[in-house]
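I hope you will forgive my troubling you with a question about protein structure. Here, with my thanks, is the record as I have it:
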Amino acid sequence: MARPNTSAVQPTHSGAWIIQAWLSFALAIGVMAIGIYHLPVDGWQKAFLGMGLLFSIGSTFSLSKTVRDQHEQDRLTARIDEARVTKLLAEVDPVALK
């Protein structure tokens, strides 16, 4: 009996979802930048807030990449472990164990 394929199928995102994600990201950054620009404070305070905004964006991208990479590594490790177990089970001769 053939073993069913147990590898998970990765769902792909629709084009509409990708556009919505990028538009919401751009809108959030744009509105925040406009808000900082129109604050009634000195220029150095606006620059500090703008720098904080840029660092927040950069760290968000780094964190999301790290989480994605860790998830992919865990999936790969699980598949390797499953392949090892399958190989070991295939090598066992049930008649010889008796």
